[in-house]
Predict the 3D structure of the following.
Amino acid sequence: MDLKLVACDLDNTLMEGVPIEPEVREFMVEIREEGIKFVINSGRPLKDILDVLSDSKVPCSRGYPEAIISMHGAFIHYLKGKNYIEDEEWNKEKEKEMEILRQEIGWKSKLWEKIIEDKFKIKPLRKEIDQGVFRVLFNNEKEAEKVREAITRESNFKYTTFLRNKCFLIATLSTAQKGCSLLRVAQHFGIPPNEVLAIGDSHNDMDMLNGRYGFVPAAPSNADEEIKSLVKSKSGYVASLPEGKGVIEIVRSLMDSH
Ligand SMILES: [Mg+2]
């Protein structure tokens, strides 16, 4: 492929844990020298992502990553000099929609607690269900998926989608998932979707891996089985190596195939 932009999920894709391995960090520099842009597309808030980069000694002053998409697609920031500047038009609109999301889900908190604890008799490992927040860590992926299906059936929201990331279930903005925001970033750089490589490992990455926006999808070997099947079905690349090493394998292989 004619590769111009690599968009990569952070947790369990670019890294197994903090810090990002030096080999992976250097690889980011190497592809930049080839004229390929690098974008982080994560469910974490921007501050968290910047902390990971700083702990990993990724010097943004050297010009990468060129953009950061945070909160599962809700917010976009571009690197200008040494700072990340927000995509004002997009972020302002999403901020407003987040407020509606909080209202949409706020009054149903009690119902969801009932579904989880009374109906399914599940005791989550961690639970933040409050006015406008829904973030629950289950004991296993099966539990999380069962609750996701039940809650999705019970709700008909305009701005809220319940996304599962491994054992986590999170309420996210339906109007700005990872793929939709990545399309905006690609357009900002003037890069067509078929020159964009999207790499992810879990369900919250599906929006950028399912072919809907025309990106080339890929996954590291540690990705969820369902994700690997999805990537294969879209003629994408599934690495034989996990996490950061898998990312390097994927990008090298696609660069060589050009
Ligand atoms: Mg991940």
